[in-house]
Amino acid sequence: MNVPEIFDTLAYGPAPESASEAAAWLDKHNRKFGHFIDGAFTKPAKGFLTKNPATGDKLATITQGTAKDVEKAVKAAGKAQPKWAALSGHERAKYLYALARLLQKHSRLFAVLETLDNGKPIRESRDIDVPLATRHFYYHAGHAQLAPTELPDRAPLGVAGQIIPWNFPLLMLAWKVAPALAMGNTVVLKPAEYTSLTALLFSEISQEAGLPAGVLNVVTGDGATGEALVNAEVDKLAFTGSTAVGRRIREATAGRSIPLTLELGGKSPYIVFEDADVDSAVEGLVDAIWFNQGQVCCAGSRLLVQEGIANAFHTKLKARMDGLRIGDPLDKCIDVGAVVDPTQLKTITEMVSNNTEGETYVASTDLPEGCFYPPT
Fold first, then answer.
1. What is the number of structural domains in the chain?
2. Are 189 and 48 found together in one domain?
3. Candidates 71, 204, 297, 333; catalytic one
4. Whole-structure pTM over 0.90, yes or no?
C-alpha cells in the first residue's frame, strides 16, 4: 500500500476524555444547585433538569429563579457595589488575577463540564473556550490597574444585570463579568437554562478567590428569570442572544434611561473569489459554519462563490463535509459534537426540511443517537 492509500484509509481511534472529575464535582453538590447570591449558594429549590445533549443523561437539577430571587441578588449587588468601587484598581485587579489563575488551575474540570452540558467537542472547550475565558480575566485585571491613570474620567455604573446564551457559556460569562468587575461594577448574571453548570462552578471558585460577597451573583432559570432581571432595578443591562428577544428587551427598557448592550444574531457571508486558495477557503468555511455545531452568532451562514470556481469549490466542500467526524463530544477525535438541546435540534431539522430554494446536501457520515445533526 502506498502513502496516499494509507492516508485515504486511515481511521481515527477513539480518544475519550474522562468525565470522572466533573461527575465528582456534581456529586459533591448532590447534583442539585441553588442560586449564588451574596457570596453563598442558596438552598436548591424547584427547578428543571439539565442534561448531556449527546446522551440524554441527567447532569443536575437547576433551580428556577423567581422575581424574588432576582430582587435578592440585585439588593446584594447594590449593597456590595460602593465598597467594591472604592477599592483601588490594583486591589480589584488582585481578585481578577486570582480568578484567572483559578480558571487555569481548574481548566480541565471547566472544559469537561462545558462539553457535558453544552455538547461541544472537548477540543473546542479545552483549547478555545477555557483559555480565552482565562485570558479575558488577565486582560481586564490589567485594565483595572490602568483605569485610574488611563481612564480618569470614567466611573462605574453600579449593578450590571447580565444575560448570556448557551453557545459559549463560560466564555460569555468572562466577556460580561470581567470588564464589569474591573471597572468597579457588581454583577447579577443569568446564564442560559440549558448550560448553567460552568457559571455555578465559576461562582464556587469566586469563593476560593475571596471575592467579596455580593460582587458576583448568579441566578439560574429560564426566560422568565431573564425577564425579571430586565425589569429589576439595575444600573446597566447586557444581553447576548436572539434578535427577537433583544427587541423585547429594548421595548421593556425604553424610557428607563439605563445603558443597554445587545449582542444579537446575524447572517454572516463567507465570500470566495476565483483567485482564492480553494483548499484553504474550504477549511476556513468548515471553521466558519460547523465550529461549535454552527451555534455561533457570527457563523459564516451564507456562502457566496464566484461562478468560475463554483463547481470545483462545491465538489471539494462536499468531500470535506463527508470527512467530518461526528460523535461523543468527549472524544478528542471528534470534529462536530451535539446540538445543545432537543428543542434546537427540532428547529434545525424543520428549517432544513422547509428549504425550497434549491439543492440540500447532507454529509454522508455516521450519525449517533442523541442531539446530533449532520453537516448540511
1. 2
2. yes
3. 297
4. yes
